[in-house]
């Protein structure tokens, strides 16, 4: 039975790969733009795309695909997931630290980070390359899911649903912000965002567990229409209250991200060449890991980046892509490939 289930989900994942590959590409660029572009347009739709949806959808996506690995209880596959998460989490900060030291002492570029900053970066994923808080949370939440699977297999869905409800209780009661809001920068965001990102991870897992996507794909056009209408209602009107939190709190963003994720899994795009999609979306992880330090280095010399223009964001994205492409050519057959993809 387990083998049949695994084949089933592997088949589903392959079918939706094109849609999610395209989604990964757009989300990756939105992440870069969120940190390197300042828009004069206060349009709520543009703000939502650039600032709010990328990280939650990446959590949904990550744990949607993690489902098959988790229920297989295959230790090699579980170990491989931790390797994919830990290698960039540890190695990129060390590389950035060494480069910053070189630039500071040889080229007199003042981007040097202290050993204390490196220690904080490795402990919490938040210091000079603070986007790695995302990796910190992924590692922590992966461990939680594995613990629940191995200790409470029969009750895992009940436990996960209760965790999600508790997360929203902590958010809406403002307890989460009261506990973590006063902490130092390196502690505030990685720990404060755990109860904000766990619901997305659980939703991704549940979508796979209940074969929800497979059911919706039977009525693609109707489903997409309904989801787009829901998106319009939720974004356009103040149906849900806005919470004080750490960027990803509240049910509003959760509904928006789930709708977008589902749309891209069922949208009929079989006519698009797979190789093209794979090529443009291949290094989205690597681009995420390095775009902040690359921006810091390049803004010294490139006016478009220094002025936070959208063209500067495009330049950063392309250069990060090329770095990942070259790195993958040399290290693509080793475990260090996880630095780039």
- What is the straight-line distance between the termini? 32 Å
Low-confidence stretches: 1-16
Q: Radius of gyration, rounded? A: 20 Å
Number of domains: 1
Order of helices and strands: HHHHHHHHHHHHHHHHHH
Query: How many β-strand stretches?
Result: 0
Q: What class would the helix/strand composition place it in?
A: mainly alpha
Major pleated sheet: none
What overall geometry do the principal axes of the alpha carbons give? globular
Beta-strand content:
under 5%
Q: What's the number of helices?
A: 18
Amount of helix: over 70%
- Overall residue-averaged pLDDT value: 89
Keywords, please?
disordered N terminus
Notes on the protein architecture:
The chain has 341 residues and is mostly helical. The protein has one domain. Helix content is 75%, strand content 0%. The chain has 18 helices and no strands. The longest helix has 31 residues, at 75-105. It is globular, with a radius of gyration of 20 Å. Mean pLDDT is 89; it is low at 1-16.
List the helices and strands and how they pair.
Elements: H1 2-15, H2 17-36, H3 44-51, H4 54-72, H5 75-105, H6 115-124, H7 133-151, H8 156-172, H9 175-180, H10 185-192, H11 194-209, H12 212-216, H13 220-236, H14 251-266, H15 274-281, H16 284-298, H17 303-306, H18 310-331
Helix pairs in contact: 1-4, 2-4, 2-14, 2-15, 2-16, 2-18, 4-7, 4-11, 4-14, 5-7, 5-16, 8-11, 13-14, 16-18
Task: Write a compact overview of the structure shown.
The protein has 341 residues and is mainly α. The chain has helices at 2-15, 17-36, 44-51, 54-72, 75-105, 115-124, 133-151, 156-172, 175-180, 185-192, 194-209, 212-216, 220-236, 251-266, 274-281, 284-298, 303-306, 310-331.
């Amino acid at each position: 039975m387990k083998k049949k289930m695994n084949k089933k989900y592997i088949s589903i994942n392959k079918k939706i790969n094109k849609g999610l590959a395209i989604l990964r590409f757009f989300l990756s660029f939105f992440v870069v733009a969120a940190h390197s572009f300042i828009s004069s347009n206060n349009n709520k739709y543009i703000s939502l795309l650039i600032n709010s949806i990328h990280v939650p959808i990446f959590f949904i996506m990550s744990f949607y695909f993690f489902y098959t690995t988790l229920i297989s209880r295959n230790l090699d596959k579980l170990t491989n997931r931790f390797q994919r998460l830990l290698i960039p989490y540890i190695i990129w900060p060390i590389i950035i630290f060494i480069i910053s030291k070189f630039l500071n002492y040889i080229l007199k570029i003042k981007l040097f980070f202290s050993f204390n900053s490196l220690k904080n970066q490795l402990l919490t994923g938040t210091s000079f390359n603070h986007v790695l808080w995302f990796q910190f949370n992924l590692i922590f939440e992966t461990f939680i899911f594995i613990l629940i699977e191995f200790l409470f297999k029969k009750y895992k869905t009940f436990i996960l649903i209760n965790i999600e409800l508790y997360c929203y209780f902590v958010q809406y009661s403002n307890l989460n912000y009261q506990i973590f809001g006063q902490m130092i920068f390196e502690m505030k965001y990685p720990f404060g965002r755990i109860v904000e990102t766990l619901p997305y991870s659980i939703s991704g897992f549940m979508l796979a567990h209940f074969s929800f996507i497979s059911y919706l794909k039977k009525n693609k056009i109707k489903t997409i229409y309904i989801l787009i209408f829901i998106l319009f209602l939720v974004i356009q009107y103040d149906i849900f209250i806005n919470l004080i939190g750490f960027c990803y709190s509240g049910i509003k963003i959760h509904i928006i991200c789930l709708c977008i994720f589902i749309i891209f899994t069922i949208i009929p795009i079989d006519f698009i060449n797979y190789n093209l999609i794979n090529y443009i979306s291949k290094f989205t992880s690597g681009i995420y890991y390095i775009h902040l330090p690359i921006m810091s280095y390049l803004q010294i010399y490139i006016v478009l980046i220094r002025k936070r223009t959208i063209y500067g964001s495009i330049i950063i994205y392309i250069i990060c892509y090329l770095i990942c492409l070259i790195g993958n050519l040399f290290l693509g057959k080793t475990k260090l490939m996880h630095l780039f993809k």
